[in-house]
Amino acid sequence: MNQGMHRTTRHTREHSRRRAATTGLVLALASALLAGCTPTEPEGTPGEENGIMHDIHASPEQSAIEEWSPRIAQEASDVATNAATVYARPELNQSQWFTGLRPYLSADAQHTFQNVSNLNITATTVTSTEEPVKGRSSAIATVTVNTNTGSLDFLLSRADGQWVVEKITSTK
Fold it and tell me: Taking the complete model, does pTM exceed 0.70, yes or no?
């Protein structure tokens, strides 16, 4: 019986060693795979200055975006002013109002504004437009348009050479 216990104990120890070896191998492989997926920074440099974000190259569409210029800023200003003019028309029925605003809106904004009631809009007249503020990209701008009841902030994006309204925020 002692010999039977010895075999069982020896079998259990060998099974434990195999399990430990297999677990070690799995952990080593997982570590190697994860190390290959984890971006590393050049030694001795802070993260953001030489990190992974600087290795990303622009797509052809992004590369085609024109640099910010007085002409592009004026186009953004014109679109915001024209959109504000048709936006500030609470006297129209909702369908007429949306039809006038729609050409200035992005596809997402069209979806949002088709359900907006223009009866809640208090502005009726555009009084002035401030200088556009360039976003992080030349394809993004914010333009504040002043009205007779406050101001409207327009978030614009530029695609295919045309500015479109992404969002309108009313401020008083």
Answer: no
